[in-house]
Structures are given as structure tokens and as C-alpha cells.
Design brief:
Layout (H helix, E strand, L loop, with lengths): L5 H22 L8 H14 L2 E5 L10 E6 L2 E6 L5 H12 L12 H11 L4
Parallel strand pairs: 1-3
Antiparallel strand pairs: 2-3
Length: about 120
């Protein structure tokens, strides 16, 4: 049995790959930036994935606080005021996630990583 002609294989493969590249070049678009609500949802999902329980209720003693992270009986609870501005809630959740080693190697959209880095005090 003879080995296949490498040149023939490469030519047919390159035609297919080339067609795919042309297709991708014509249809690929950069991702749209995330709006504030999508950023908040992504941060909340990340917080829950690392074991933070999120509760949405206005704080009783601080009417203008957007929220707070508390540790109670070995559990972490994040209280968020649903009437606070979205940007303020984003800052509270990002601060709760700042400095956690378990998310350092996780891919996060640039907007999300930036919020967490800003809360940590890191910048590129």
C-alpha cells in the first residue's frame, strides 16, 4: 500500500481551509461591549460560582449603601440593594470578588476583569 501523496492532500485541505477563512473574514465581527446589566449578571454568576450567596434586599441600617459582603457562620453572604444604581451594585460585587485566587486563572470578559482589578487596586 502506498502512502498518500502529501502534496495532493495539502492542496485539497488548503482549499477547504482557505474557503473557511474567507467565510470567517466576511462574517466575523468583534463582540459588542457588555451593557451594565449584563456586566452585573456576569459578576453575580461569578460570585455564586465561588460560593458567595447573593441576597437582594435593601439594607435596613444604611439607606444609601448599595450592598455589603458579610461572613456569617463560615458562609459568605452578599447583600445587594436592588434600588441602588447598577454601577454601584457592580462595584459592590467586584469588591467582593477582588483578591480571590480561584478566579485568577478563569477567563473573564475584559469588562468584568477590569471591574475586579479596579476593586483590587490593580491596573495594567
Amino acid at each position: 500500500m502506498r502512502a498518500p501523496n502529501l502534496l495532493t492532500c495539502c492542496r485539497s485541505d488548503s482549499r477547504i481551509i482557505g474557503a473557511g477563512r474567507d467565510y470567517l473574514k466576511d462574517t466575523w465581527r468583534p463582540a459588542e461591549p457588555m451593557d451594565e446589566y449584563a456586566q452585573l449578571r456576569a459578576l453575580l454568576d461569578l460570585a455564586e460560582s465561588v460560593g458567595i450567596t447573593v441576597r437582594r434586599r435593601p439594607p435596613d441600617d444604611q439607606p444609601h449603601a448599595a450592598g455589603a459582603l458579610v461572613r456569617l457562620a463560615g458562609r459568605e453572604l452578599l447583600f445587594l440593594d436592588p434600588s441602588a444604581a447598577v454601577a454601584d451594585r457592580i462595584a459592590v460585587v467586584a469588591a467582593a470578588l477582588a483578591g480571590r485566587g480561584e478566579i485568577e486563572d478563569v477567563f473573564l470578559p475584559p469588562e468584568i476583569r477590569r471591574h475586579i482589578d479596579d476593586a483590587t487596586g490593580e491596573s495594567d
